[in-house]
Amino acid sequence: MILFSRIKELFGQWNIIMLSNKEYLITIDSVVGDGDLGLTMSDGFKVAYLAVRDSEETDIGKLFYNAGKAMSTAVPSTMGTLMASGLMQAGKVLKAKNELLPEDIALLFEAYMQGVENRGKAKAGEKTFLDGLAPAVDSLQEDLKNGVTLLEAAQNAVKASERGSELTKTMIAVHGRAATRGEGSRELLDAGSVVAVLIMKGFLEFIKSIAN
What we know:
Blueprint: E1 2-3, H1 4-20, H2 22-29, H3 37-53, H4 60-74, H5 78-93, E2 99-100, H6 102-120, H7 130-145, H8 150-167, H9 191-211
Antiparallel strand pairs: 1-2
Helix pairs in contact: 1-3, 1-9, 2-3, 3-4, 4-5, 5-6, 6-7, 7-8, 7-9, 8-9
């Protein structure tokens, strides 16, 4: 069981991992994008964390929604809006909860994925963030349904996310600037999918921290 007071630490881990990978995200985004992904993600998740860090709100759903709202205002770029939409959708699904059971964790990330899908009008297999997140969601759902510990489920989710991200090197881009390259986009790693990997790695660090 994860209480509302500890869930703030998840946002803290996301803040840390996005900041520590800022330059890497800038580098891989510069191949086909404008190179601002690292700045957008580090700034966006910092603002999300600050929005919940000192909040006295005990409704976990409202914490997620408020974090997403703050992010959407601070980094109104395409990717910033997508990530904010994920947080807000998770907030809607988790509304009125002040603790999370293992099955709620699966709901959290499924809702995050739905929020991004709905806003971006994309789906897995189109060389986007979703190709890093969807395999992690599937892994979490399967593990938690079968009684796997939350720590092991988080570890497996990271591995699934990494595999999904790596597979974007075999896909032709459908969205964004990369899509203009057509077949030439196939061998490129999708930077958005790397953000999904980082989100799952941050989640794993959070689970490790609360397990101690």
